[in-house]
Design goal:
single chain; alpha/beta; Rossmann fold; 7-stranded mixed β-sheet; 36% helix; 25% strand; globular; binds S-adenosylmethionine
Length: 212
């Protein structure tokens, strides 16, 4: 087994043991705003908890679920047994986007990418999205103020753990907000949790900035 395959089965339980319900609250923060979605791109959803909730809340949505871990995708397929979901076991950077998407979701995924990859991905997604497409994001963050250093330490420890467990090479949070802005997205809403160490954000593609 390689990469996230090694942790797939334990992922959910280790998440609950460390952060309780906080990561789930981030994932589902803006779910209700996606009820009308028709075409969704869900990158790195792991065991499929977000995709399952999306299918339940958005009756017409068709989902491209992309993950490079076969074991994670197997769990996702079991949890989301629906003809409305198409799974793709491939590196997101090599996935041929079948847009236009009106919903993109990346929960605790952008932190697995390098700065270059986040920039490239954001531009590719913008070019394959419908006007006003929404992008839901959950991730770790480094808040300003007194919690800056504890947050840095926590994020560093998590990267170290994932490096040991999955071989993840990335070691710091990429500047994904900047990448999204440069690709033409605009932040509509940001909800901090755990005093800003976690964040859930909803971004929208400005119609005039759409590349294609
Ligand atoms: C930290 S887990 C997050 C899982 C889930 N989204 C969540 O909210 O907990 C990252 C997921 O992204 C996948 N992943 C990481 N890098 C990837 C890449 N370059 N292409 C596709 N999937 C990737 C991993 O296999 C894993 O399932």
């Amino acid at each position: 087994m390689k990469g996230f395959d090694r942790v797939a089965r334990l992922y959910r339980w280790s998440e609950y043991a460390t952060f309780g319900p906080l990561l789930s609250r981030c994932r589902f923060e803006f779910l209700s705003s996606a009820e009308e979605a028709q075409r969704a791109l869900v990158l790195g959803d792991g065991d499929g908890r977000f995709t399952a909730a999306l299918l339940a809340s958005s009756p017409e949505v068709l989902v491209d679920a992309v993950d490079q871990s076969a074991e994670m995708l197997r769990l996702l397929s079991t949890r989301c047994a629906s003809e409305r979901v198409h799974t793709h076991c491939i590196d997101a950077m090599r996935f041929h986007l079948h847009g236009p998407y009106d919903l993109i979701a990346t929960h605790f995924f952008l932190d697995c990418l390098s700065t270059n990859d986040v920039e490239t991905l954001a531009l590719r997604i913008a070019a394959n999205s419908a006007p006003n497409a929404r992008w839901l994001i959950s991730d770790f963050d480094i808040p300003a103020g007194i919690l800056r250093w504890p947050a840095r330490l926590l994020v560093r420890s998590l990267y170290l753990a994932f490096r040991v467990l999955t071989g993840l090479r990335i070691q710091q949070l990429p500047p994904w907000r900047q990448a999204l802005e440069e690709a033409g997205f605009h932040c509509l809403q940001s909800v901090p949790r755990l005093r800003g160490i976690l964040v859930a954000e909803m971004w929208v593609l400005r119609p005039t900035m759409r590349v294609r």
